[in-house]
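Re: the 362-residue chain
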Amino acid sequence: MTDGFDNIVLSTEKISSIDKSSMLEKILEFPDQILKGWRIGENAEFSFDPDRINTIVLGGMGGSAVVGDFLQSIFMDRIAIPIFVNRSYTIPDFVSSETLFIASSYSGNTEETIASTEEAVRKGASIICVTSGGKIGSLAESRDYPIFILPGGYPPRAALGYTLGVLLNFFYRAGLSHITLQRIQDSISFINKLKKPWSDPADSENMPLTVARQISGRLPVINSSIEKGMAVAVRWKTQLNENSKTHAFLNFFPEMNHNEIVGWERMESTSRFFNALIMILLRMSEDSNRVKLRMDITKSLVEESGGRVVDIAARGNTYLDRLLYLIFLGDLVSFYLAIIYGKDPTEIKKIDSLKKRMAENY
């Protein structure tokens, strides 16, 4: 760890004094949100014919888009229909009447998602909306699109569980998914067992706090496999950005072995920068054997150059277990890092300021 953060003692009282909007409570809700989201999906009405669909596009930004990354990871080897995550005002030309377009905007007022959804409407795509209201909610009501209403009052990034649960239920009811309610309940039970040690700053088994201390004062560089770990790496990066108010970067195996690995060479001219880096290696048991070998060799090469590596392996009996494990871990790492830095994990002043200026120039 970097001098200046080594001696910071965290207590429940200190956490409460910094976490003014109860982000910790919201993060701890994550596994139960998934089940609640599933129930929301069960109560929604829709008709869907998978035989009429050849592509699925999820339009969203930030915390409302990353759920699409998770759907890609979960279903890439399970369903023949490609899933594309659209983070833009525009949509690809392949979107057509044979596309299912999922408008995902927690607030319902994300301008990029509104614009891309309106374009999908013009192209005749089948549309469902996942939102807590706003303009996306109004659009769904005016056109009688299926709508899944999420509970309000959360920062979008803290409502991931609801959106994930809703869409897992939708995929299941649409005949696209193998993941049953029982499978989800088993995974939730597994994650819930981690709540007690991981929420207590005095518990020696608090792994997220341990990792947060390891990376404090440094610049995290997150690496995972592209196939099954990509979505988790993206989630870790964005949570570190928003909750911890820090830069974080990411790349994926095997691609990083063809370029970025060379940047882990210690040179006198860049030693200050090099010393600030720390690699976070996220492993899945589903990673191919060649990728696992690449990770092992890469870790050795980085450490031989004097670089630092935090090596994290997902736990759990199923892929869903392991996916949720790494999401929950990363969210809490970002929370504790914010507390170590003395920053309220909920506030996002830069984003709020940017949105205000954008609105002034609409």
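The chain has two domains: 12-20+202-340, 24-187.
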